[in-house]
């Protein structure tokens, strides 16, 4: 056999396989012997490396919490507040008349109108009830949960069905 | 009195097997699972099964092969489970930065660190079957026939997987030749 042994046959020989011809070639061929010995060495190295623990990742550096520099932080906050307050103050100084006028109106509104609206104990117009509320048939219908039944006007047909919406529109003057 | 002796024998057998095989099973699980914590959990599972099995079998039982098979199946189960797949994405990567080994072996002195990293990377790139076959044959030292029996494959199939694994892993050693 003149051809060198392929890798698979060399490996097969390392596994006590292969034919007697392969073995004879291996003994005679220096190149194949060298390749075979290299294969055996490689297998030893591979097995040896895999018997050891895998190379581990270097432990990551613990991330430090960002340090707050309190003095500059407080200084910045104070400056911001002062600036905001100063702006308001300057605006007030720039237009004193209009703002005081507005303030007086606002105060008058708050002192007069709101208490009346919120804490009213009497009817605002005791003498005038809404027209709809005085209509007895509507009130009765509301209590009964049905349509108001009013007597038909003499001009209308006797079997008329009073239509509440048309009557409502009539009363409102439409 | 008799019962106490049996319990003591079981305990003794378990401890003996634990000390004899713990490092080996841990290494196997670490090879077959990427995540070391995951591997540690599987090792615990395996030894829990061993604890239960020592009640049924005696010292003459083929414990080494049994433990290997149990570890293999436990790792397979873990890989199959859905959450393992998610976890695997976050598994420990093989880095170029290696921590120095406290006790360097002669092998370590010979093999350069870059090569070790390379080999592990190439090993991780093997198919699961190739990893199993390679580890059982070359790291554990089982014969091709025994590996075939463990994996329920034919010896020819084992050889095929082995040769492919060897070819692939030898590429990691390219710089040596």
What does this entry look like structurally?
The complex is a heterodimer of chains A (174) and B (177). With 174 residues, chain A is mainly α. Helices cover 63% and strands 0% of the residues of chain A. Chain A is built from 8 helices and no strands. In chain A, α2 (20-28) packs across α3. The longest helix of chain B has 31 residues, at 2-32. In chain B, 29% of the residues are buried. In chain B, α1 packs antiparallel against α2 and α7 (128-139) packs across α9 (155-172). Chain B has helices at 2-32, 36-53, 63-80, 82-89, 106-110, 113-125, 128-139, 144-151, 155-172. At the A-B interface, α1 and α3 of A face α1, α5, α6, α7 and α9 of B.
Please outline the helices and strands.
The complex is a heterodimer of chains A (174) and B (177).
Chain A lengths: L6 H8 L5 H9 L1 H22 L18 H25 L1 H23 L12 H4 L1 H9 L19 H9 L2
Helix pairs in contact in A: 2-3
Chain B lengths: L1 H31 L3 H18 L9 H18 L1 H8 L16 H5 L2 H13 L2 H12 L4 H8 L3 H18 L5
Helix pairs in contact in B: 1-2, 1-3, 2-3, 6-9, 7-9, 8-9
Features:
heterodimer, A: 174 residues, mainly alpha, 8 helices, 63% helix, B: 177 residues
Give a short synopsis of this structure.
Chain A is mainly α and 174 residues long. Helix content of chain A is 63%, strand content 0%.
Distinct helical segment count of chain B: 9
Question: How many strands appear in the DSSP assignment of chain A?
Answer: 0
Strand content of chain B: under 5%
CA gyration radius of chain B, whole angstroms? 18 Å
Rg from alpha-carbon coordinates of chain A = 53 Å
**Whole-Å distance between the termini of chain A?**
121 Å
The coarse overall form of chain B would be: globular
Largest sheet of chain B: none
What general outline of chain A do the C-alpha atoms trace? elongated
Share of residues in helices of chain A? 55-70%
The helix/strand order of chain B is: HHHHHHHHH
Which residues of chain A sit in consecutive blocks of at least 5 with pLDDT less than 50? none
